[in-house]
Amino acid sequence: MQHVLVCNAGVVTGSSREDLLEVFHRLGSVPLPLSVALLPGKSYSFLSFASSTEAEEATNAVNGKEGLQQQQPQQPLYLAYVDRIPERSLEGAPDFSAPSGLILCPDFVSEEEEGYILGSMEWEEQGSNKSLRNR
């Protein structure tokens, strides 16, 4: 397994696991990381790839060229190889890796279906708890 440090995308910068994975999905032919580790209070994150070949291919495609979609103007991500993810940094941090066997289906619900689902939900608050909302 090969680990890659994403120097400028972490919890502090407002990045999420989904944001980082979206960069690789957008490129299509680039290998996806097996796991993404975002550490609380840090401006960096770690990606783990199955092999050094996959890590190298992904790093060559993204490093200094691709950025996160939510950032405007889009800033490129900077990646670096690391031998391992520091154990001490991960103590107490939640595990953000996907469970084994999980299959992600991007665009499983179309925008039209999403609009229908959201439109069918009742978003108004009911009851006497309105006075507690701004406590």
Describe the structure.
The chain has 135 residues and is α+β, with helices and mostly antiparallel strands. It has helices at 17-27, 52-62, 87-90, 111-119; strands at 2-6, 35-38, 45-49, 79-82. The longest helix is centred in the first third of the chain and has 11 residues, at 17-27. The mean pLDDT is 83.
Distance between the termini: 49 Å
By CATH, the superfamily comes out as RRM (RNA recognition motif) domain
**SSE run:** EHEEHEHH
What is the general shape?
Answer: globular
* Derived structural class: alpha+beta
Q: Let me know the number of strands.
A: 4
* Number of spatially distinct domains: 1
The portion of residues assigned to helices is: 25-40%
Order of strands across the biggest sheet?
2-3-1-4
Classified by CATH, the class is Alpha Beta
User: How would a crystallographer describe the biggest sheet?
Assistant: 4 strands, antiparallel
Strand percentage = 5-15%
> Poorly predicted ranges (pLDDT <50, ≥5 residues)?
none
**CATH architectural name:** 2-Layer Sandwich
As a whole number of angstroms, the C-alpha radius of gyration is 18 Å
**Rounded mean pLDDT score:** 83
